[in-house]
Amino acid sequence: MSFRFRAIAAAALSLATLATGGLAFAADLPVKAAKKAADLPFFLVIDNRVTFSYIFNASQPGAWSFRPDGSIDSKTTKQVYSFTHFDLWAYGTNFFTISMFKSDHNDPAGPCTNAGTIFGAPAICAGATEIYGLFRSTFGWNELFDTKAFTAGPLHNISFEVGMDANTENRYFGAAKRDVVGGLQFAFDLPYKGYINVAPLVYWEFANHNSFSQCGLFGAGVPGVTCLADGNTSFKPTWAVEVNYYMDLGFLPPNMQYFSISGRAGWYGKKGTDTQPLPYSPANGVYNTAVELNSEPIRLTFDASKAAWGDKYSHFVDVWVAYRYWQNKFGLDHNLAVGCTTAVGGRTVSTGSCTESSLYSGITVKF
After folding, report:
1. What is the annotated signal peptide range for this record (predicted)?
2. Kind of pairing, strands 194-209 and 238-248?
3. Among 18, 51, 119, 219, which one is least packed by beta carbons within 10 Å?
């Protein structure tokens, strides 16, 4: 049993490091179904971490500027400060993360600027700040029903999964959202103490505020026709699929077994128009939302504390590098939505502010 829980603790670190970026997903980590022994603690694993990371080429819908040569610059760097908590108890897992994203001048904070200065040259004011929180919980069927019936081959368990997300920003556009998810998670074992979890979910973004849809900020507008009086939207429920994985690189020679790989991806279906409940109408600047992909396909982690001080301190300090890709941010169609496009030479072009492709790196410390 002690070996098994050491494996669980090693896998848990992946969830903590995946958290930065706002969308990491709780995992029903590999735990063989068995009755809980009387002398076991209520929480079998508790894992808390802090992370500092850096996104080299982030983007933000509506935040862009013209370069001197006339091309569009939609890139901003972001510093990210994160706290993550993961625990494993008798019937499942709980995962929570809260992150603060700090942008550079190409994504300025409000109210020190407005649309007229953002869309001309980089604003000479502080970068915007965003706070993003996420929570996921799973309840394993093997544990709930005291059985091994839901373990077969590589399938380790099936779980109920619930969760929610919330964010707030101090940008001129005043974006904020609240959503809940619920569904199932299928947990599969991988070699070298690894796992891959696949969760088909229902996703409901029940509250969203964005000035792209608010009357008066981009022209007068007609309330209820071309814009919403207060900019507040409740989108339609839709589907989502969240995937995450982790695996030690156990095939390396013993003196090099300090590395692991992990990753995640989330697909979120169309949730109505981008100015829901207004109907689709290009003439009024109202477009359908698009399928959103928020992913970190690959992260390579170096267990610095194990390399420096030995197995006893494994994953106390991790250094990692990753690739991050996010298309149709927050469901906005990167080729059509008002917040993602501009007019150049009489035609509508994408500013690139609704798609993110970036190197991503950081350091994570367990405490």
Report:
1. 1-26
2. antiparallel
3. 219
